[in-house]
Amino acid sequence: EQSLRQEVKPFLDKLAQNEETTRQAQHNIKRIIQNYPKLKSRLRKALEVGGQEVLKEIFYHPVIKIPTKMIEAWINED
C-alpha cells in the first residue's frame, strides 16, 4: 500500500501543480491507470485486500479529489 501511495503521489502532485480542474485531473488519472497495466493490477489487488479505504489512502491529496468509486470503476475496466 505504501509503495503504491509513493507511486501515485507524483502524478497527483503534478496535476495539482498544473492547476488542473477536477474533471481534467480525473480524466488524467483514468488515463494513467489505463496506460500502466502493472499499476492497474497492483491497485486491483490492493482494492481486493483492503477495500475502498485503501484506495482512499493511496489517492489522498489535499488539492486533487477523486472519488474512490470512480477509481474502483477504472481499476475494474478491462
What does this protein structure show overall?
The chain is 78% helix and 0% strand. The chain is mostly helical and 78 residues long. The chain has one domain. 17% of the residues are buried. The mean pLDDT is 92.
Number of domains: 1
Q: What structural category arises from helix and sheet content?
A: mainly alpha
**What's the gyration radius in Å?**
11 Å
Helix content: over 70%
Order of helices and strands: HHHH
Q: What's the main sheet like? A: none
Number of strands: 0
Mean pLDDT score, rounded?
92
Number of helices: 4
Proportion of beta-strand residues: under 5%
Query: What would the principal axes of the Cα set say about the shape?
Result: globular
Low-confidence stretches: none
Distance between the termini: 22 Å
Give keywords.
single chain, 78 residues, globular
Topology:
Elements: H1 2-17, H2 22-35, H3 37-58, H4 68-76
Helix pairs in contact: 1-3, 3-4
Give a quick rundown of the structure:
With 78 residues, the protein is mainly alpha-helical.
